[in-house]
Amino acid sequence: MLxxxxxxLARCNSHDSRIRRGALxxxxxxxxxxxxxxxxxxxxxxxxSMEHDHWPIAKPxxxxxxIEPTDNIVDVGCGAGWLSRVLAKRVPQGRVVGMDISDEMxxxxxxxSVDLANLVxxxxxxxxxxxxxxxxxxAISVESSYYWPDPAKGIREIYRVLHENGSAWILxxxxxxxxxxxxxxxxxxxxxxxxxxxxxxxxFREAGFANVAHRLLPDPTPTPETYTGRWFRDAxxxxxxxxxxxxxxxxxx
Length: 253
Ligand SMILES: C[S@@+](CC[C@H](N)C(=O)[O-])C[C@H]1O[C@@H](n2cnc3c(N)ncnc32)[C@H](O)[C@@H]1O
Known about the structure:
Layout: H1 9-15, H2 28-43, H3 46-65, E1 72-76, H4 82-90, E2 95-100, H5 103-111, E3 119-123, E4 136-142, H6 151-161, E5 162-172, H7 184-187, H8 197-207, E6 210-217, H9 235-244, E7 246-252
Parallel strand pairs: 1-2, 1-4, 2-3, 4-5
Antiparallel strand pairs: 5-7, 6-7
Bound molecules: S-adenosylmethionine (SAM).
């Protein structure tokens, strides 16, 4: 989600009339819809600009992940790869794989990452992560999981590719327990899942994860006096949204 800038969504709502909101049927059609939408975001430069909104919540998450220099990390729904690059620098003896359903996002990510030898980007869908089982010691996903057509399957796939004792960390700004984001569902051009923290935790447990927990990460970014975007009614609502913060759900294999 791109909170601060004017989104590409108004434009997309008109030409995506075949999308039935709430019709979250996983399969090739849903994948294609997501790919096309996020390719448009990539073309509009949103892959890069999301760093501004997501870093304030990703930064404390990295602190909690207790990353070791030897870790192998997968960044699911990596977008233009800014976070994958941060991670690659923190694991000089390990490897980072950034994965995204949007081939355009992956083009942007690769172009900006040629100097990092321990970082690769792959086009892929979370329901079928193109990697061997038991490989990664950490998995992270920032602001992606509520778009996944079948989040339960996506979380099971993350579990599959994690090594024993590996941990998964999923950050979500659009969730039921924060009332200030609920209106995003109507504004987005693709179907989304508005789940509660308890529901996300349940999906983790059902996938096999242990030590499942969640916490809220308030966003300390100062709120401007006036808000001109379309995600919130006004600056007061944006400030209230940030004060509650993002949902971080995590668990261990
Ligand atoms: C809001 S963007 C966030 C991108 C990035 N994590 C960031 O913080 O800048 C959501 C990303 O998730 C990707 N995505 C959505 N559904 C996906 C799926 N089913 N499998 C893999 N990636 C997906 C999109 O292509 C998009 O790049």
